[in-house]
Amino acid sequence: MFSPEVENEITDLNIAYLLLAQKLLREDRAAAMLQLGIDRGQAQFIGRLAVPEILTLSSARGLLCGFRMGELVRTVLQTGHDEPLQRAHLFIVLAAGQAPAAA
């Protein structure tokens, strides 16, 4: 499907994502769950992963994380507000996990 180089980069990204997720969950579980877009069960699963399990899971074909933007970014950026306000609004909406109503 992908070249070996890309497969290795996906594995590296997955490892980094899971390690960051664990760190975020240790520091502030509720904020991390919101930021990562995961539920309590997923948070517990990720938080309990040992290094060998992270390596095995990270080697799966495909990304473990994904973008949560789509229409959301387009809607926020087309509101006509100044750039700092647009960025703040985008981060608030992304953190809340909700897309604003299309105008």
In short:
Helix content is 68%, strand content 0%.
Labels describing this entry:
mainly alpha, 68% helix, 103 residues, Flagellar transcriptional activator fold
Describe the structure.
This protein has six helices and no strands. The protein is mostly helical. The protein folds into two domains: 4-58, Flagellar transcriptional activator fold; 67-103, no CATH class. It is flat. Helix 1 (4-27) runs antiparallel to helix 2 (29-36) and helix 1 packs across helix 3 (40-48).
Classify the beta-strand content into a percent band: under 5%
Contiguous helical run count: 6
What's the CATH topology label of the largest domain? Flagellar transcriptional activator fold
What are the segments in which pLDDT stays under 50 over at least 5 consecutive residues? 99-103
**What spatial form do the alpha-carbon principal axes imply?**
flat
**Helix/sheet category:** mainly alpha
Radius of gyration: 17 Å
- Number-wise, the strands total 0
| Number of individual domains | 2
Distance between the termini: 40 Å
As a percent range, the share of helical residues equals: 55-70%
CATH top level assignment of the largest domain? Mainly Alpha
Order of helices and strands: HHHHHH
CATH superfamily of the largest domain: Flagellar transcriptional activator FlhD
Biggest sheet: strands, sense, closure? none
